[in-house]
């Protein structure tokens, strides 16, 4: 499938064709074939996109919240009406099965857009007021920041674009959005959806390119805030550069999240949860629970049930409704994940329970040029192994055993990352006690991965700064103004006649 080329989009339209700067190609990961060409945004085009957003800001910020809400709700309706069309683009771009993109990616993004549209229309931007004393009172207001930069990740392209743009625009800001250069196809389509819904020109703009373009956004004096989703090492650089210019930041970074299986667990439920925490989206999820802690006495039965269920991980034609496992997103990422699997076998000496090097069984010949790996499970793992310590971002599960719950909690927390964590067990009081001790910003009990619009999410430690979604997610796109009104009739002063 070939698609139109992509160019910088600002002031309501894409820049016209003709000679331009460097280009890169969008690749279908399932076949490694070229889908279209992307034109890298020049420094001048980045400036123009930011200028367009800055010019649009005063009018959009002064638009009543209920009117902004109507536009965003119409955009959500358009997204839902075009769900399958957009989901197919996401499948081509990311390599995720259509069974996933059609039920998760676009839909959950539209959910967030609806949530923030309703929130600002129903008083979510209201401040507070209170009497300070009989002759004075204080009121606060929530004001938009200005033009904001959204820098997306490659694993959930349109969902992440909506997670950033929905609260940003609902709060009255404008945005310049840069998708990942690995999965850029959604960005102009989203801009066109917003435009069709009635969003004024310049309120949402798109630039394309790698980290150098992201750096232009991060350092630009016309940008008030940077919201970034990606790996920890890049996030540190982005946050440092933005904070050095006194910009607001939100960072949603990586994780090496633990799944703790408690001794009284429903073991089949725990296996289902561990599989969702490792193989959904081919393991390319920042919240993946790749360190699975299992009681020593349950290890054999856990592994037996897991092996029985691994047959239900089905690679194949991505548009087939039965396919639930796709390729990795790019050749570079494929090479990285393969190196980790090889290291787990040859250097860490973990026992390979399932999978390993090579492509999934029964893969059609037409797909064998794609970036496919086998879903892989290592067992008899230890905390010191590289595959246990480092974020692989692929379908690689590590099973570790423990002898006491306190030990499992201590080892689960022994990481510089703190994005997500979860527990599985029948004793709900014990589940809550364990969750309270886990050092992570997103936690689950007897489930894994759900992240509704109403739920604020964000990482601890090196896994991020700030939150997205929920009421607190809106606050991240606002600044506070406090006003004290004195009604006493005179100004208190120390400069008076003695």
TrEMBL record:
SUPFAM superfamilies: ALDH-like. The lineage of its organism: Eukaryota, Fungi, Dikarya, Ascomycota, Pezizomycotina. Belongs to the aldehyde dehydrogenase family. It comes from Capronia epimyces CBS 606.96. Its EC number is 1.2.1.3. This is aldehyde dehydrogenase (NAD(+)). It is an enzyme of class 1 (oxidoreductase). Residues 22-482 form the Aldehyde dehydrogenase domain. Residues 1-24 are annotated as: Disordered. Gene3D superfamilies: Aldehyde Dehydrogenase, Chain A, domain 1, Aldehyde Dehydrogenase, Chain A, domain 2. Keywords: Metal-binding, NAD, Oxidoreductase. GO terms for molecular function: aldehyde dehydrogenase (NAD+) activity; metal ion binding. It catalyses: an aldehyde + NAD(+) + H2O = a carboxylate + NADH + 2 H(+). The active site is at residue 252. Pfam families: Aldedh.
């Amino acid at each position: 499938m070939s698609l139109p080329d992509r160019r910088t989009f600002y002031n309501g339209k894409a820049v016209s064709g003709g000679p331009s700067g460097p280009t890169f190609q969008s690749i279908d990961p399932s076949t490694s074939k070229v889908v279209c060409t992307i034109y890298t945004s020049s420094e001048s085009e980045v400036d123009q996109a930011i200028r367009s957003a800055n010019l649009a800001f005063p009018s959009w910020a002064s638009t009543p919240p209920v009117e902004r809400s109507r536009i965003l709700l119409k955009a959500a309706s358009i997204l839902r009406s075009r769900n399958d069309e957009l989901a197919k683009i996401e499948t081509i771009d990311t390599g995720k099965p259509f069974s996933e993109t059609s039920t998760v990616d676009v839909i959950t993004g539209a959910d967030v857009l609806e949530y923030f549209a309703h929130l600002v229309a129903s008083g979510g931007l209201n401040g507070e007021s209170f009497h300070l004393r009989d002759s004075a009172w204080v009121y606060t207001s929530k004001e938009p920041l200005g033009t904001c930069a959204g820098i997306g990740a490659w694993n959930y392209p349109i969902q992440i674009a909506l997670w950033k743009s929905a609260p940003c625009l609902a709060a009255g800001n404008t945005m310049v959005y840069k998708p990942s250069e690995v999965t850029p196809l959604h960005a102009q389509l989203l801009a066109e959806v917003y435009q069709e819904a009635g969003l004024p020109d310049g309120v949402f703009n798109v630039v394309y390119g790698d980290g150098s373009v992201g750096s232009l956004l991060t350092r630009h004096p016309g940008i008030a805030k940077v919201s970034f989703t990606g790996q920890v090492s890049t996030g540190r650089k982005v946050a440092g550069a933005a904070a050095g210019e006194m910009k607001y930041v939100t960072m949603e970074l990586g994780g090496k999240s633990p799944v703790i299986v408690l001794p009284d667990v429903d073991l089949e439920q725990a296996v289902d949860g561990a599989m969702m925490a490792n193989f959904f989206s081919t393991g390319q999820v920042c919240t993946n629970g790749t360190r699975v802690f299992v009681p020593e006495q349950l290890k054999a039965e856990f592994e037996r049930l897991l092996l029985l269920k691994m047959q239900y991980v089905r690679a194949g034609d991505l548009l087939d409704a039965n396919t639930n496992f796709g390729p990795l997103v790019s050749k570079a990422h494929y090479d990285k994940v393969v190196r980790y699997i090889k290291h787990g076998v040859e250097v860490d000496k973990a026992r390979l329970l399932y999978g390993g090097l090579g492509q999934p069984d029964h893969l059609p010949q037409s797909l064998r040029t794609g970036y496919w790996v086998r879903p892989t499970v290592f067992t008899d793992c230890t905390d010191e192994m590289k595959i246990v310590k480092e974020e692989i971002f692929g379908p690689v599960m590590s099973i570790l055993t423990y002898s006491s719950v306190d030990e499992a909690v201590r080892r689960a927390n022994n990481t510089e990352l703190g994005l997500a964590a979860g527990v599985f067990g029948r004793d709900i009081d014990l589940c809550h006690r364990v969750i309270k001790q886990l050092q992570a910003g997103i936690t689950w009990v007897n489930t894994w991965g759900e992240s509704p619009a109403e739920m604020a999410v964000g990482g601890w430690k090196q896994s991020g700064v700030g939150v997205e979604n929920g009421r607190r997610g809106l606050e991240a796109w606002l600044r506070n103004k406090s006003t004290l009104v004195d009604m006493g009739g005179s100004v208190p002063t120390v400069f008076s006649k003695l």
